[in-house]
């Protein structure tokens, strides 16, 4: 898989993950949604950072 395809797939996957996490937080944690949303954003940032590191090592 070339770098361009990997970048597109990882971008779409990251946004889908963020949306899924927001939906799960909204459904399962109605009392403390703020903390769930912050945790979702932190998870998204970590995933995007790891993908970015992986993409820089690809040729």
Polypeptide structure, described:
86% of the residues lie in helices and 0% in strands. The mean pLDDT is 93. The chain has two helices and no strands. It has helices spanning 3-28, 33-57. The protein has 59 residues and is mainly α. It has one domain (3-57). Keywords: Membrane, Transmembrane, Transmembrane helix. The chain crosses the membrane at residues 37-56.
- Taken in chain order, the helices and strands follow as HH
Computed over alpha carbons, the radius of gyration is 14 Å
Q: Pairing-aware structural class of the strands and helices?
A: mainly alpha
Structural domains: how many:
1
Shape: elongated
Please count the helical segments. Answer: 2
Total beta strands: 0
Report the helical percentage. Answer: over 70%
Low-confidence stretches: none
Overall pLDDT metric = 93
End-to-end C-alpha gap: 10 Å
What percentage of amino acids are in beta strands? under 5%
Largest sheet: none
Q: What's this entry about, in short?
A:
About 85% of the residues lie in helices and about 0% in strands. The protein has about 60 residues and is mainly α. It has one domain.
List the helices and strands and how they pair.
Layout: H1 3-28, H2 33-57
Helix pairs in contact: 1-2
Comma- or semicolon-separated keywords:
about 60 residues; mainly alpha
